[in-house]
Write a structure and sequence with these properties.
Blueprint: E1 2-13, E2 17-26, E3 29-36, E4 40-44, E5 59-64, E6 71-75, E7 85-89, E8 93-101, E9 106-115, E10 120-126, E11 135-140, E12 144-149, E13 152-158, E14 167-173, E15 178-183, E16 187-192, H1 193-198, E17 212-215, E18 220-226, E19 234-239, E20 242-247, E21 252-257, E22 262-267, E23 277-282, E24 286-291, E25 294-300, E26 305-311, E27 320-325, E28 328-334, H2 353-369, E29 384-393, E30 413-422, E31 426-435, E32 438-439, E33 443-449, E34 452-460, E35 470-477, E36 483-489, E37 496-499, E38 507-513, H3 520-523, E39 534-539, E40 546-551, E41 556-561, H4 567-581, E42 587-589, H5 593-636, H6 644-691, H7 710-719, H8 732-747, E43 755-756, E44 787-788, H9 790-793, E45 803-808, E46 811-816, E47 827-829, E48 839-840, E49 843-845, E50 848-850, E51 855-857, E52 864-869, E53 872-877, E54 879-880, E55 897-898, E56 909-914, E57 918-923, E58 936-937, E59 946-947, E60 951-953, E61 966-969, E62 972-975, E63 979-983, E64 986-991, E65 994-999, E66 1004-1007, E67 1013-1016, E68 1021-1024, E69 1029-1034, E70 1037-1042, E71 1055-1058, ...
Parallel strand pairs: 1-25, 47-60, 53-65
Antiparallel strand pairs: 1-28, 2-3, 3-4, 4-5, 6-7, 7-8, 8-9, 10-11, 11-12, 12-13, 14-15, 15-16, 16-17, 18-19, 19-20, 20-21, 22-23, 23-24, 24-25, 26-27, 27-28, 29-30, 30-34, 31-33, 31-35, 32-34, 35-36, 37-39, 38-41, 38-42, 39-40, 40-41, 43-51, 44-45, 45-46, 47-48, 49-50, 51-52, 52-53, 54-57, ...
């Protein structure tokens, strides 16, 4: 066996290409027709040119047919017409095309069009019944065969394919005039054409009988026939792992077992000998060439193969392979084909490499000065250009978006005018407009342009807000490869309008300028600004408000919003307008790296979840197919076995598939939203680093148009300017460190990073250093400067890791490691065999290691301080204290500077001496401690409390502050990215690097009853008993409010009054709760959670939750009826347990009829002689029927049509279940399914689990509605 590589001669991109055909269409040589599932068709003529530079011209036509293409065939379908035609099969149509041209432009002309009644599957062509012209046989999904000749449909015959899930490959053999088809049931069937033509399509008449059948035992993939003279006429069947060769009578000639999964079959020249020559493509990217069962060649491919065909273009370019792969088609040859590839003559002379190197340098210089000589007929320069302009806003045809109709916001539109210019006539010109706006004509195609071509398109906001004003225009021609493009910015007022500013916002970006800040009315003249220093914008279809402030005094601008999504757009627009007004201004901006990294982490987590969900979906799909195959196998036996248990598994797999499909759809929608947010964040990072003169190669374009994950793309981008191994797995901490180091390297030093490790002095004396053991002193050594292992020297007498010894002056000299104090450390690492001391946990902030008790200033905001406390990072806003009227505000300092410090009796006030004469005074904020509040202790001379003791953890412990997936804080476990509050002033989140907290607090002066004042900390609460008021210290302000009693006035229905001694408010104790079912139908649970569910079964509305198999005391069952699109509750069944395994039943029927077991009762009615006792009557105020079981605490109200109300007393709280919920006061867990103890995410899954008859599998129509 010889091994050759496949050498590509021509390759073209065919997006989503799935089928191809080879045949003569023009000029007596083969052309290739490729179709895609998206409806796009390509016609390629590889023999059109022999020049490699002009192979782009080989694509004669590329057209969108707007229907999915299932199969393509080329043949002479019309008698008397010399030119071959193209047959294209789509799910509902069979269309015959003719390729025509006017000399330069090729087009498809529709000749005939046939409608397929059922969904088509595939087709074959042949001269059925010895016809003169080729005919087409189409096979549909119902296993029916339809034969077409020119404009006529000859017949339509249903055939039996032995209980197949779907049909398989089909082919016609002229030797026996038969149509051979295989199906998913692995059965090969041959039908004579004469039998098909004379059979009846109806129930009466001549039936269709198979000529012969053959059981393959493997899944069929492809069929081929051989009708040459030297080889016995044969039928070749390629299955997944087996190749069959049969005679035309259905007898085996030979079989061959493959070692890997096959994908495609090709039979080629068998005219020279009596061997069957064939080529098989495999899933391992190999081409296997056989003579009968002898493997003679094996060729390696670079892509997965879908189809393999044989083609010939001229006498020079002989037989070549057409290989269709995913989104790619290539024309290739094998080995060393002499017509295309010749080895160069061997060099026998001496080569002077230095002289050759000089020649190469001269050639490179010529290439740089002068472009390559153009080929004949091709211009040497790009002759295509593009111009654009746009008209004003079209307020006459203002468009209202569906999302904006509630607020009646008018959205303007803009007309964009585009003009394409060319110096020569260009063919097949395409124009692409890419923008975040909705563009009416995003793609345009022109068959040819002579000098210019104009078009206009509308641009406006539609369906979602706009995060980027840029619009990119690209135009290209496939004739000469001319490409041109331009980028423009849309007007700002096309995507937003002005609103009032908002002072408080989560995200803030400060832009500093070297010149005085401009008035915002000058920067945004097309808008009406609130003031000259403040303006607010609101994008269309968004509730986010972007506020811009200008400070002329401090020469800075600030952009702030509740979302990071729009910061980039307005920062870019503001910077552009400032530079236009002040070209000499130097602009700088802080980089919100933490927020950008957070957006990256969120998107990466969504991507990982999507991958996991897709794997689970694939697993259940495989399970469903296996179950279906097993059921069919059992049902095909002579004695069919029971398949009820298989039906249960089938229903389970089907429900899981639906569940995962729904979750994937929701996840894809979330990813689309996160995609926009991440793209805006990366664009912002690119913009800010560009201002510093060294932009990072990261922007929003890496999020789109790639099959890689965002994590891989960011890794690759970082590797372009920082050497890293792309094959290693990077954690979020690694990425943070890389980004931090890159930003520091590219953006220069961070402004004013103040390292403040100062802590209050400890009053306790330090312990003296222990004396070195005299056993290890004075021992001689020879290896000067080497480290000494004392365990080896002392023969195991000294093994402590606390001794660090080296050989110095030929004597072993040791130093005893001194352990740091752990007094102010809440969490420490335990010592092990290799360490001497217990060490306090440190922190990782933005990739930088920080020590315990270290305090520093944020790189993004000089007014934010950050501290590290044993793995917990706390940040806070500096509280400035200024006692001078002439204080100076200098760059790099948050507070005003004074010449004298503030002198107060407050341990938390600090005044730092800066610049040798100024004092920077502020109030210190205490970091968050990782120990319970009961363990906090405060020294009278210190500002902040500390933990009474420290907890010791080992490196193998799971109780670390953060291990990358979860965090432990004060005894509680949190998942990464969980957010929680530890007090009203502090908000914390679990991050891969540890706990990150944000504090905001100011003290208050509290006036006591005797008139004295005391200082209370932020968040302190107290009650004024004289007027029933609650007070709280909120950032320096005392806020008092009258107590809001939950129950004012009379108690509502279902509750009764209860007086509480010593309290300002009374209580309304719960007496009963109600569940309501009404309408189509809608459900309002006992806990007032509302949803809608249209089902056609009987459902348990509520019942006493049974334990250990004991029958519930009562059940209320709703029986639904109606049509598939409209259902309602037709009747209600009340079942009361008799405690002997049976139930007492009552039926509430339409028209207010009540049936007790088998008898109809008249109301009013009272049953008191036997269990259960109840009373039935008509409510005179509403006219509804009321059935009351007082001893049980149950009441059912029925209007005789569709309204049901179930009332339970308080004693049933948290003891019931069903469609009415669990009656525990929490509406969030009302969707508790019967089989699980957790709340379901799917209303459909929840409601179906409470079907009274589990076997009821009617299709459910689900809609969730929350009622108030």
């Amino acid at each position: 066996m010889s091994v050759f590589h496949v050498h590509e001669w021509l390759a073209l991109e065919v997006i989503d290409g799935n089928v191809c055909a080879v045949g003569e269409l023009i000029e007596k040589r083969d052309q290739i027709v490729v179709g895609s599932i998206t409806g796009r068709i390509w016609i390629v003529d590889p023999g059109r040119t022999s020049e490699t530079k002009q192979q782009l011209l080989s694509c004669l036509l590329e057209e969108d047919l707007s229907v999915a293409i299932l199969d393509i065939a080329i043949g002479n379908f019309i008698s008397g017409l010399e030119q071959n035609l193209i047959a294209v099969l789509s799910p509902q149509k069979l269309i015959i095309y003719r390729l025509i041209s006017d000399g330069e432009v090729y087009q498809l002309n529709t000749i005939y069009e046939h409608t397929i009644t059922a969904a088509a599957y595939n087709m074959c062509i042949g001269t059925f019944g010895r016809a003169t012209a080729a005919q087409i046989c189409v096979q549909d999904m119902t296993c029916s065969l339809m034969v077409f000749e020119a404009e006529h449909q000859l017949f339509h015959r249903p055939v039996n394919l032995v209980a197949a899930l779907h049909p398989g490959p089909i082919i016609y053999t002229s030797h026996s005039d038969s149509i051979i088809t295989a199906s998913s049931s692995a059965i090969l069937i041959s039908y004579r054409y004469s039998v098909l033509a004379t059979a009846s399509s109806g129930k009466s008449g001549k039936k269709i009988a198979a000529n012969w059948t053959f059981n393959l035992g493997d899944y069929p993939l492809d069929l081929e026939v051989i009708n040459t003279t030297l080889v016995q006429p044969s039928i070749l069947i390629l299955c997944k792992r087996t190749l069959f060769c049969l005679t035309h009578g259905g007898n085996i000639r030979f079989t061959y077992r493959l070692q890997c999964v096959a994908t495609s079959l090709l039979v080629y020249d068998s005219t020279h000998d009596a061997y069957v020559k064939l080529c098989i493509a495999t899933a391992t990217r190999m081409l296997l060439f056989f003579k009968d069962t002898i493997l003679v060649w094996a060729a390696q491919l670079l892509h997965d193969t879908i189809q393999v065909r044989l083609c010939s273009f001229s006498s020079v370019y002989r037989s070549m392979l057409v290989i269709l792969s995913n989104s790619r088609i290539s024309v290739s040859y094998l080995g060393t084909e002499p017509s295309l590839f010749r080895l160069p003559a061997p060099q026998t002379r001496f080569i002077d490499f230095q002289l050759r190197y000089k020649e190469f340098l001269e050639l490179e210089g010529l290439i740089r000065k002068k472009p390559l000589e153009s080929v004949e007929g091709v211009p040497s320069e790009n002759s295509l250009s593009l111009n654009y302009s746009y008209d004003g806003f079209d307020f006459k045809s203002v468009r209202l978006s569906p999302r904006a109709e509630k607020s009646s916001v008018e959205i303007p539109s803009l007309t964009l005018n585009i003009e394409l210019l060319s110096e020569i006539r260009l063919l097949d010109l395409k124009l692409i407009c890419s923008a975040a706006f909705h563009i009416e004509h995003k793609y345009a195609s022109f068959p040819a342009i002579d000098s210019s071509q104009k078009m206009s398109t509308g641009v406006y906001v539609l369906s979602q807000p706009v995060y980027d004003l840029r619009c990119k225009l690209y135009a290209f021609s496939s004739q000469f490869g001319d490409v041109t493009g331009k980028e423009l910015k849309m007007p700002l007022n096309l995507m937003c309008h002005t609103v009032n500013t908002q002072r408080n916002a989560q995200y803030k970006v400060t832009i500093e300028s070297s010149l005085a800040a401009l008035d915002l009315t000058q920067l945004f003249p097309e808008f009406e600004a609130e003031t000259s220093t403040a303006i607010g914008f609101q994008p269309y279809l968004s509730e986010t408000v972007i506020s811009i402030y200008a400070s002329q005094k401090y020469k800075r601008y600030r952009i702030q919003a509740e979302s990071l999504d729009f910061i980039y757009l307005f920062a870019d627009e503001l910077i552009t307008r400032i530079q236009a007004k002040q070209p000499e201004a130097k602009i700088n901006c802080t980089l919100p790296l933490d927020q950008i990294l957070h957006e990256i982490n969120v998107y990466v987590e969504y991507e990982k979840r999507k991958t996991e969900e897709e794997k689970e979906l694939e697993r259940f799909c495989i399970l469903l197919r296996h179950v279906q195959a097993t059921i069919l196998t059992k049902l095909k036996g002579e004695r069919p076995t029971e398949v009820d248990h298989m039906n249960t598994l089938l229903n389970y797999a089907y429900q899981q598939i639906l569940c995962y499909v729904d979750r994937l759809e929701q996840l894809n929608e979330t990813l689309r939203s996160a995609n926009l947010s991440l793209s805006a964040a990366l664009n912002l990072m690119h913009l800010i680093t560009s201002l510093k003169g060294n932009p990072l190669p990261l922007d929003g374009t890496i999020v789109n148009n790639s099959g890689q994950s965002v994590w891989e793309r960011i890794k690759w981008a970082i590797s372009t300017f920082k050497p890293i191994d792309l094959n290693t797995e990077l954690s979020s901490n690694d990425l943070r460190y890389l980004m931090q180091s890159v930003c520091e390297g590219n953006c220069g030093t961070m402004a004013y990073i103040h390292e403040d490790s100062r802590e209050e002095e400890d009053d306790e004396p330090q312990q003296s250093e222990p004396i070195v053991d005299p056993l290890i002193s004075g021992i001689p050594c020879t290896n000067e400067g080497a480290k000494i292992n004392l365990a080896d020297v002392t023969r195991g007498l000294v093994t402590s890791p606390c001794y660090h010894c080296i050989c110095m002056n030929s004597v072993i000299t040791c130093v005893l490691e001194k352990c740091e104090s752990l007094k102010n450390c809440p969490t420490v690492w335990d010592r092990n065999n290799n360490t001497c001391c217990m060490k306090c946990l440190d922190c990782i902030h933005m990739g930088i290691k920080r020590n315990n008790n270290q305090i520093w200033t944020s790189a993004q905001d000089i007014c934010t301080q950050i501290s590290c406390k044993a793995g917990v990072i706390t940040s806070w806003r500096i509280q400035c204290l200024t006692n001078c009227s002439n204080g100076r505000l200098l760059a790099g300092f948050c507070c005003g500077l004074c010449l004298t410090p503030i002198k107060v009796q407050d341990q938390c006030v600090r005044c730092d001496l800066v610049l040798n004469q100024w004092y920077h005074c502020y109030r210190f904020t205490c970091p968050v401690l990782n120990c319970p509040i009961s363990q906090h202790t405060k020294h009278p001379k210190r500002c902040c409390p500390e933990c009474k003791s420290h907890s010791v953890i080992s490196e193998s412990s799971n109780l670390t502050v953060s291990n990358g997936s979860h965090c432990f804080f004060r005894g509680w476990r949190y998942i990464v990215h969980d957010t929680f509050r530890i007090d009203p002033c502090s908000r914390c989140s679990c991050q891969p690097g540890g706990i990150v907290c944000r504090r905001k607090e100011n003290p208050c002066k509290k006036t006591e009853i005797n008139g004295s004042e005391t200082i209370v900390e932020h968040g302190t609460r107290w009650t004024l008993d004289n007027n029933c008021s609650n007070c709280i210290c909120a950032n320096g302000y005392i806020k008092c409010k009258k107590m809001n009693c939950p129950w004012e006035g009379k108690c509502p229905q279902g509750r009764h009054f209860k007086k509480v001694n010593g309290s300002c408010c009374h209580e309304c104790e719960l007496k009963e709760g109600s569940c309501t079912i009404f309408g189509d139908p809608h459900y309002l649970t006992f806990d007032k959670f509302g949803y809608s569910f249209q089902g056609m079964c009987s459902y348990i509305l509520t019942q006493e939750c049974s334990l250990n198999g004991i029958d519930p005391q009562f059940k209320i069952i709703g029986v639904n009826g109606g049509r598939s699109s409209l259902t309602w509750t037709k009747r209600v069944i009340i079942a009361i347990s008799l405690f002997n395994g049976s139930f007492f039943t009552m039926h509430l029927l339409p028209k207010k009829v009540i049936r007790e077991r088998t008898k109809i009762i008249s109301i009013p009615y009272v049953r008191y002689s036997d269990w259960p006792e109840y009373r039935a009557f008509e409510d005179p105020t509403t006219g509804n029927i009321v059935v009351s079981f007082k001893l049980i605490g149950l009441k059912v109200i029925w209007d005789g049509k569709s309204f049901v109300e179930i009332v339970l007393t308080k004693r049933h709280q948290s003891k019931v279940c069903g469609l009415c919920g669990n009656f525990n006061g929490d509406p969030s867990d009302d969707l508790m399914s019967r089989s699980t103890s957790s709340s379901s995410h799917s209303v459909s899954h929840f409601a179906q689990s409470w079907a009274y008859n589990i076997a009821c599998t009617q299709r459910q129509y689900v809609n969730i509605v929350r009622f108030t």
